[in-house]
From TrEMBL:
Family as reported in the entry's similarity comment: Belongs to the unc-93 family.
Location within or outside the cell: Membrane
GO CC terms, sorted: membrane
Source species taxonomy: Eukaryota, Metazoa, Chordata, Craniata, Vertebrata
UniProt-listed InterPro entries: MFS_trans_sf, UNC-93_regulatory
Annotated membrane topology: Multi-pass membrane protein
Native species: Leptonychotes weddellii (Weddell seal)
Gene it is expressed from: LOC102746158
Transmembrane found in the keyword field: yes
Chain segments annotated as transmembrane: 39-57, 69-88
Entry protein name: Protein unc-93 homolog A-like
Length: 123
């Protein structure tokens, strides 16, 4: 198997597992934290952080760390998001969503992923 094909398959399978777990947890957010609207406000905090950080972070991180390490860092942020949902209190989801890097989780893995796929297709 070609090296570039193997890289594409590994990254794609990693993203499949990561986004399956994240999508399920995100869908359950308002049910898991139903007291006082905690789940809804936690998701609002999450998307507010995404909105602000997605505008500036991806180009800066790709220049500083490169595509591969930006993907690794952003995947670690998804794991931090999942771990922040184990203990249900008012502060845990509100602190874990922005602290685990909202923009890192959304826009940063997609940009280098697309760059990597385009480079693989060109070679």
């Amino acid at each position: 198997m070609e090296r570039s094909l193997k890289n594409v398959l590994v990254v794609s399978f990693g993203f499949l597992l990561l986004f399956t777990a994240y999508g399920g947890l995100q869908s359950l957010q308002s049910s898991l934290y139903s007291e006082e609207g905690l789940g809804v406000t936690a998701l609002s905090t999450l998307y507010g952080g995404v909105l602000l950080s997605s505008m500036f972070l991806p180009p800066l991180l790709i220049k500083k760390f490169g595509c591969k390490w930006t993907i690794v860092i952003s995947m670690c942020c998804y794991v931090a998001f999942s771990l922040g949902n184990f203990y249900a209190s008012w502060y845990s989801p509100h602190s874990s969503h922005p602290a685990s890097g909202s923009g890192l989780r959304f826009s940063c893995p997609m940009t280098p992923h697309c760059i990597h796929f385009n480079m693989s297709a060109a070679s």
